[in-house]
Fold:
Amino acid sequence: MATTNTNKGNATTFTTPSDREIVATRVVDAPRRLVFEAWTNPKHVPHWMTGPEGWTMPVCEIDLRPGGAWHFVWRQPDGTEMEMRGVYQEVTPPERLVNTESWGSDWPDTLNTLVLSEKEGKTTMTSTVLYPSKAARDAALGTGMKDGWAASNDRLDEYLRTMA
Amino acid sequence: MATDPLSITFAALADPTRRAILARLAAGPATVTELAAPFAMSGPAISKHLKVLERAGLIVRGREAQRRPRRLEATPLKEVAAWAEGYRRFWDASYERLDEYLQHLKEQETEDGHDKHE
Structure:
């Protein structure tokens, strides 16, 4: 499965190379040295990793070494905060970053691998999220209720759309 | 094993028989006999799957005395769908911002480099 999201300019491609993974691939117009900085320096991260319009990132702690912890907190326009933390497993600038990610006890923990490859000044960011189970992966993709179902597939699909 | 609500939902959804049962219930309530019909499975085996789905809050039992039809309970699925949607929106928006931010970093570097050479 591969879907592409073309908002403007560059597109993010989502693929599922194995049962438990989601891979998001995205090209940015900058050398990977800068891209790695943007992903790993707490001075830079809160400037872009802030999701939907109006969110801010009041906490961005990064201890960039294997075994080092990271901790991000986002604040939504209504004041609600969202927290994410994990531990770095591999830190290989400017090409590779592996870390665990936890959204708190209500969510399944994942292992994330970011690989940066550079060509003619542009960097391809390949972000792999490894889920604890196929079900968790499928749920994250929003296709958990779609894949591998027999006769009633379409009905449930429709039904899920009405719930969204 | 994790006992938080979303993990319980994921665990319940991890089995193809249980997903097929939910797909059938999406079309309307059904009795245990009706649910068992498409599967080459014993009554107790089906009951076991139904119990897992019930514990996850994905199905509920009707009150009609004899038939006790099961029906789909949408709330846990909504939570899963909301999480998925939020996740995607988050990264789409962030990557758009990263494009702009990297341009800013590149410009800054060019300026710094320029200053050094002067």
